[in-house]
Amino acid sequence: VFDAISCGDRILLATGKGLNFLADGKPVPLDNTNTTWCLSFSSDSSVILAGQNNMISCYRYNKVKQSVEKNPVNIIEISEQARSIAEDKNGMVWVGTDVVKVYKLEFISGLFSPPEIKMLDSVNGVPRIAQVSVINGKAVLGTWAGLYTFDEIAEKFIPDTLFGKEFADGSIDVFKIKE
Predict the structure, then answer these.
(1) List of residues 6+ apart from 85 with CB closer than 8 A
(2) How far apart are CA 134 and CA 81, in angstroms?
(3) What is the pLDDT of residues 58-96, one digit of tens each?
(4) How many Cα neighbours within 13 Å face the side chain of 105?
(5) What is the pTM of this model?
(6) Residue 3 — very low, low, confident or very high, per pLDDT cuts 50/70/90?
(7) Distance between CA atoms of 5 and 21, rounded to whole angstroms?
(8) Nearest of 178, 158, 153 to residue 169 by alpha carbon
């Protein structure tokens, strides 16, 4: 199990064998087509974003029935493993990968339409191994070099002193951060 999120009184698991609901202590397969590394709800909680091998899948979630549709309604292909995923206050979806790349997805017409995709790498300040999160509504990277936030004007990730200078100078590794 790589990640898990609560879906009402059930738990959705991201596993090496795809998506599974945990029911009565046992995994029940939902989608076993791809290794799933990470999960996140969209800002309106009607879509579950699943980071998988070489893709991001968007699954429709029914809050009333506490169910997820078996087939994704949108698939965005990328060339790496999506290891972390989060949506910021502006609706941008950020995807951390298993290499020095972060994807910024802008869904102009909603999560069920093709997004504009911007790939960010070391030129944009992405250090090696970056786990993306959202803190105070902004994209944040937890890295072996500390904590980084995205500067929209410079289009670059920069060291962040939110928790103190030691989190920005590379002296403390940050693997994953949650708000």
Answers:
(1) 38, 39, 40, 49, 50, 51, 56, 93, 94, 95, 96, 132
(2) 19
(3) 888 888 887 888 778 888 888 888 999 999 999 999 999
(4) 29
(5) 0.89
(6) very high
(7) 10
(8) 158
The structure tokens listed for 42 are 């969209």
The encoded tokens of residue 142 equal 């937890």
Distance CA 144, CA 23 (A): 36
By the 10 Å C-beta count (0-12 exposed, 13-18 middle, 19+ buried), 150 is classed as buried
145, pLDDT greater than 80: yes
Q: Which amino acid is at 67?
A: S
- Digit-coded pLDDT (tens) for 94-120: 999 988 899 999 988 888 888 999 999
Sheet holding 146-151, edge to edge: 130-135, 138-143, 146-151, 156-159
